[in-house]
Amino acid sequence: MIGVGSMGGAILAGLRSPGVSVDGPISITTRSAASAAPFADADDVVARASETEPGANRIAVRGARVVILAVKPWMILDVLREIADDLEPGAVVVSVAAGVTTGSMEALLPSDVAAVRAMPNTPSHLGRGVTGVAGGSTASADDVDVVRRRVETLGAVLVREEGRINARAAVSGSGPAYLFLFAEEFTAAARRLGFDAAEAKLLVEGTVAGAAELMARSEEDPAQLRRNVTSPKGTTERAVEVLQTGGWGELFDRALAANIRRSEELAAE
Ligand SMILES: NC(=O)C1=CN([C@@H]2O[C@H](COP(=O)(O)OP(=O)(O)OC[C@H]3O[C@@H](n4cnc5c(N)ncnc54)[C@H](O)[C@@H]3O)[C@@H](O)[C@H]2O)C=CC1
Ligand SMILES: O=C(O)[C@@H]1CCC=N1
């Protein structure tokens, strides 16, 4: 794995969780020595920092069947140029980057190395992620399956054509941020009602986490779960009415469209 920031770190934590078995050790590279240092004593991870070992990325990918690129989108092609000659024949290079197409990756890869895209999200950290997977034109069904089996250890997986991956990024890749934004705004509103920071945190985070867990475990869909809270002529009804007249449907449409437009811009950069 090249790049162990927010997303790479979440994937790595998921791959290292109890009950998940990966043929290891997992070779990772970071930019700074400080980021590699926490792995110094790990048996299941070999960490190298490109700041202190300029050939770190090239060394790390040697012998790997699956290489995960978790650097920023605008760095993906530079990293591929750097590592292309060191990749094993039959390797699969998986980019988790928004926007960057397998076509642009394939142009830099040896013909016996496949490109696959994965669009994970940060709850992968807990094995509760959702990952979209799409193979490039030279990826075999087996190559895609190798990636699917790896990311299945991180949570749910949706394998579909690459043409739909920007939409998956807009919904599930970025989705945790929308929920955290909701929690931020909800907490701020609770503070304005007079709760102190600790009380607002307990009330809002407890409610958001509990409701999410209830949704995950329940057979009922979100609309029914909402109705279960909303007594006719009761208090919830009044608040839900205010929220619904705020135009959430159109707001979400615009937010997801803006997200997809940014993926398209990144693809063109
Ligand atoms: N953060 C998220 O929730 C999600 C992120 N992604 C994708 O994941 C990728 C990484 O995003 P984040 O983790 O958020 O960014 P980040 O900035 O937290 O992580 C990137 C890491 O790569 C390291 N790095 C940069 N150049 C390097 C090099 N040459 N060799 C080794 N390491 C290098 C950086 O030091 C940094 O730690 C992006 O392409 C993004 O589109 C995809 C889905 C969700
Ligand atoms: O914000 C981003 O660009 C990345 C892609 C999906 C989630 N985070």
From TrEMBL:
Limits of the Pyrroline-5-carboxylate reductase dimerisation domain: 163-266
What's the source species' lineage? Bacteria, Bacillati, Actinomycetota, Actinomycetes, Micrococcales
Q: What is its main location?
A: cytoplasm
Q: Name one GO biological process term.
A: L-proline biosynthetic process
Q: Which species does the entry assign this protein to?
A: Leucobacter chromiisoli
Positions of NADP(+) binding: 2-7, 30, 70-73
Q: Which family does it belong to?
A: Belongs to the pyrroline-5-carboxylate reductase family.
- Indicate what this protein is called per its UniProt record: Pyrroline-5-carboxylate reductase
Q: Name one GO molecular function term.
A: pyrroline-5-carboxylate reductase activity
